[in-house]
Amino acid sequence: MDKPLVSVVIPTYNSERTIDVCLKSVREQTYPNIEVIVVDKNSSDITAEIAEKCGAKIFQLDAERAEAKNFGLKKAGGKYVCFIDSDMELTKNVLEECVNLIEKDGKIGGIIVPEKSIGDSFWVKVRGFERSFYAGTEIESARFFRKDLVEKVNGFDEDIISFEESTLPQKIETLGYNVKPRINAEILHYEGNFSLWKWLKKKFYYGKRASKYKEKFGKYATKQMSVFYRFSIFLKNKRFYSKPLLALGVIVLKLLEYFSAGSGFLVSKVRK
What we know:
By secondary structure, this protein is an alpha/beta fold. The chain has a single domain, classed as Spore Coat Polysaccharide Biosynthesis Protein SpsA, Chain A, CATH 3.90.550.10. It has helices at residues 19-27, 47-53, 65-75, 94-104, 122-131, 147-152, 164-173, 196-208, 210-225, 227-235, 244-271, and strands spanning 6-12, 34-40, 57-60, 80-83, 88-90, 110-111, 115-118, 144-146, 187-190. The strands form two sheets. A six-stranded mixed beta sheet has the order 3-2-1-4-8-6, with helices on both faces. A three-stranded mixed beta sheet has the order 5-9-7. Strand 2 (34-40), helix 2 (47-53) and strand 3 (57-60) form a beta-alpha-beta unit.
């Protein structure tokens, strides 16, 4: 085909509840030349079977997300590569908009795809409201990349667990490429089963490993992780006050996250 191949890499683990919708959204893209690579962490459910029926290439690897993504990259044959999660749905024009944008400018190395949280619970609505303020900030990270540049910087840093998705665009940016362009089409992130307790446990786990990210990525990492920077994004925006209940929820959620991550960070320091 005359259109460049796009490789969509999806790490999975017990994702039978969401993987079908995810893969269907990739199949129904307006962009025609796509391959799908699923790197499954030895799921005990039927994730792999569903993915295979949907025409994805399936590989098994017991690894953290960064390593799984890098493994998928090695199997990818596309000129471009897009990394998404198994609980995400691409709106129809995502890949077409990404390809059109990156093909027009040789200095673009990565593209940000806006993300929208989907779910009926209060905390999912809070997450969606929070996410709506991150456009143009260091909190956002590109998901769509030139594959040759990803290979040149050796992909994601596999020793980084916290903010692992941010390591790749930062490394590509150091080569002199722009990784901040955004498209209009959105990714829908289904968080309907959001558990506050599990979420805070994850933040604690990330906090125990945050020091590596800070040591390796310096000022950028410090800004991303800063409670002052994060809260300034919200509090300086007049729109934040338009929905008082959700705004309060964002403040409470972020305070709980920072407490959990900070506790994990302190535990890691004590153990050293």
